Automatic annotation (TrEMBL), chain A:
Localization (cell): Cell membrane
Name under which the protein is recorded: ABC transporter permease
Transmembrane segments: 54-76, 83-99, 105-125, 137-156, 190-214, 235-253, 273-296, 303-327
Entry keyword Methyltransferase: no
GO CC entries: plasma membrane
GO MF: transmembrane transporter activity
UniProt keyword annotations, A-Z: Cell membrane, Membrane, Transmembrane, Transmembrane helix
InterPro entries for this protein: ABC_transp_permease (IPR001851)
Organism: Acidisoma silvae
Lineage: Bacteria, Pseudomonadati, Pseudomonadota, Alphaproteobacteria, Acetobacterales
From TrEMBL, chain B:
TM regions (residue ranges): 56-78, 85-108, 128-151, 180-197, 217-242, 262-279
Record bears the keyword Transmembrane helix: yes
Location(s), subcellular: Cell membrane
CDD domains in alphabetical order: TM_PBP1_transp_TpRbsC_like
Stored PANTHER family: GUANOSINE ABC TRANSPORTER PERMEASE PROTEIN NUPQ, SUGAR ABC TRANSPORTER INTEGRAL MEMBRANE PROTEIN-RELATED
Pfam family of the protein (one): BPD_transp_2
MF terms in GO: transmembrane transporter activity
Name of the protein: ABC transporter permease
Entry membrane topology: Multi-pass membrane protein
Length: 344, 295
């Protein structure tokens, strides 16, 4: 308990440091930092309906974050959440397009499963390359993100293009309401149920199964786990597939839920934020529930800022990035440290 | 053929400068995934400063200054706050991408592109097809040689490499690994800033948000592909540039049969293949990569 409180304290301290850095940049760019933070807070939590928007963004973010937790615990830096999320969205849209006459519920289920399968596929190849030949997974998954963005652009402006669409942003045709799992608000029984289910399954996987325990050990000391007879390659590949499938599920939820179609370049900061949630929560499933609500608020603030407050939404990207810069810090420079008490 | 050489040099040079920054960091033992952020900061600062002051020299100085500042921040976070270098690097990249987006909107109001009145001076029409090459492209081989010389032929370079490979050995001859990393990152900041400046001021003299499009990560991969050797990394970066050029050529020749989006994927796929090959050549020990980047 005490260790956990200490971890929360550290996270808070470094988030504060990140916010100070952002405040300095805001001031230097000619904005008033207090006003900026007040607007962000307004957009995130205080304005009308903000909490509902918060939940709308927090659900898919939490689902992706659970996958990040599993992969990072095993010691694999799968930072390809964005690409796997896009592939999930693509899988769902393809399934809907390929089953025009099936009953609605079956299409929905098929679309969700297809999203998970596509997402897992997009995590499989970096995982395979990592485990078979030691190819650094940070680079391969990052490159996978860039490839997935282009794949999405190609699909939404080619094979899956909405013939009636005329906007600047290309997209697939709208998905019929019967197949969707929520309206445009993005909060519904389906979405909440899926999110809770993923949370519970991940919690059990991480805390109550051999896979989770061995994975957590492997992340810290792979050699020891090998000596104890666990098959590291199988563990690692499982972690990659799980994180890909959850990111894919989040993508499918987005397409079948609030978006209602496959939009080119949807939720561009999703993957980065999901990784951030997992890290801020110190790779704990229960912790990331709260953290996901916080970052869900920031995500909804990035839509609120330019429209209501007339401020650049990139401010939120900066806040997120600054938190990422500091969040893994585990020490303070000597001149900032409190004098150490004698260990008793 | 001359077309090809000129085009590959022009696309490859920004990546090579950034890759040299990566080589220095790599040798000092830092997996610098912030290169993408340094590159876009350099690209942005050079155009904005040139646009505001009208001087390309000041633009380059601005690019270097911002990039060095961010590098110092990264060093502080990794070395003094003991943050994970991978995540901190990605955070720095996010800060560069988001910060330039934010800065452009703060200074110019709307989102979009900024055009500089002038670019880095080129050789001029006297040199025929090579006339479009700018001075940073011409200086590139010298820079690669200088980095090679620094790493392989000076006492400083040996200590730098030792700091990355075996900090204990470095300490035993009186070199402070933390200080070596600071120097490597600051020097790298200069190079990455120049690389970013060459991306914007060496081409259309335009900065647009997100214009690096992963080139910083490619430069980082070039370091891995080139096994941390400056010349190897430079050739790896040229290889990625060549793939990009061939893709564009293929599109001109085959038109609709080579869809634009798939052509744009080629450099990323080449990058994956490149680091896969280098992992195979290294012998593919499962732990080798983690040891260094987490240590």
């Amino acid at each position: 308990m005490r260790a956990r409180l200490l971890a929360v304290g550290w996270a808070m301290a470094f988030i504060a440091l990140a916010l100070i850095l952002c405040g300095i940049i805001f001031q230097a760019s000619g904005f008033s930092a207090p006003d900026m933070f007040a607007s962000i807070l307004d957009g995130a939590f205080l304005s009308d309906g903000a909490l509902l928007h918060d939940l709308r963004w927090a659900c898919p973010l939490f689902v992706s974050a659970t996958g990040v937790i599993v992969a990072f615990r095993c010691g694999y830096f799968n930072v390809g959440t964005q690409g796997q999320f896009y592939l999930g969205g693509i899988g769902a849209a393809v399934a809907v397009a390929m089953l025009p006459h099936a009953p609605a519920v079956l299409v929905t289920l098929a679309a969700i499963l297809a999203g998970m399968a596509f997402g897992a596929l997009w995590a499989f190849w970096p995982g395979w390359l990592r485990i078979r030949s030691g190819t650094d997974e940070v680079i391969t998954t990052l490159m996978g993100n860039f490839i997935a963005v282009l794949l999405l652009v190609w699909l939404t402006s080619g094979p899956l293009k909405d013939p009636a669409g005329s906007g600047q942003v290309t997209s697939s045709p709208p998905i019929p309401a019967a197949i969707r799992i929520s309206t445009d608000t993005g909060v519904s029984g389906w979405i909440i149920a899926l999110t809770v289910l993923v949370g519970v399954v991940t919690w059990i996987l991480v805390n109550r199964t051999a896979f989770g325990v061995l994975g957590g050990l492997a992340g810290r000391n792979p050699v020891m786990v090998t000596w104890q007879g666990a098959r590291l390659s199988r563990l690692g590949l499982g972690a990659f597939l799980f994180s890909g499938a959850t990111a894919g599920l989040a993508g499918a939820m987005e397409v079948l839920g609030p978006d209602g179609r496959l939009v080119s370049g949807f939720s561009p900061g999703h993957g980065f934020t999901a990784v951030l949630i997992a890290l801020v929560a110190n790779l704990s499933v229960s912790g990331s529930v709260v953290v996901a609500l916080f970052f869900g608020g920031l995500a909804s603030a990035s839509l609120y800022l330019p429209v209501i407050a007339g401020l650049p939404s990139a401010a939120i990207d900066m806040v997120n990035a600054a938190i990422a810069l500091f969040i893994t810090a585990r020490s303070l420079p000597a001149w900032l440290r409190l004098p150490k008490r004698n260990r008793s | 053929m001359i077309d090809l050489i000129v085009a590959v040099l022009r696309t490859g040079t920004p990546m090579i400068y950034v890759a040299m920054a990566g080589v220095l960091a790599q040798r000092a033992g830092v997996w610098n995934l912030g290169l993408e952020g340094l590159m876009i900061t350099g690209a942005c600062a050079s155009v904005v400063v040139t646009e505001q002051t009208g001087s390309v020299a000041l633009g380059l100085a601005g690019a270097i200054a911002f990039s060095v500042l961010l590098s110092a921040l990264l060093w502080l976070v990794i070395e003094k706050l003991k943050a994970n270098p991978i995540i901190a690097g990605l955070g720095l990249t996010g800060l560069g991408l988001g910060g330039t987006d934010f800065g452009i909107q703060a200074v110019y109001g709307s989102e979009g592109a900024v055009t500089a009145p002038a670019g880095i001076p080129t050789l001029g029409p006297g040199f025929g097809p090579f006339g479009v090459l700018d001075l940073l492209v011409i200086a590139m081989p010298v820079m690669v040689f200088a980095v090679w010389f620094l790493c392989r032929r000076t006492r400083f370079g040996l200590r730098l490499t030792a700091s990355g490979e075996h900090p204990f050995a470095a300490r035993s001859v009186g070199a402070d690994p933390a200080r070596m990393r600071l120097i490597a990152l600051l020097l790298g900041g200069v190079l990455a800033g120049l690389g970013g400046a060459d991306l914007s001021l060496g081409g259309l003299d335009i900065f647009s948000t997100g214009m690096t499009a992963g080139r910083g990560f490619m430069a980082f991969s070039a370091v891995i592909f080139g096994a941390g050797h400056p010349v190897g990394a430079a050739f790896a970066a040229l290889f990625f540039a060549l793939v990009e050029f061939l893709g564009i050529k293929a599109q001109l020749v085959f038109g609709e049969n080579a869809p634009r989006d798939f052509v744009l994927m080629l450099p990323y796929i080449a990058t994956v293949l490149g680091i896969w090959i280098s992992a195979r050549l290294r012998g593919g020990a499962l732990l080798s990569a983690t040891e260094m980047r987490d240590g």
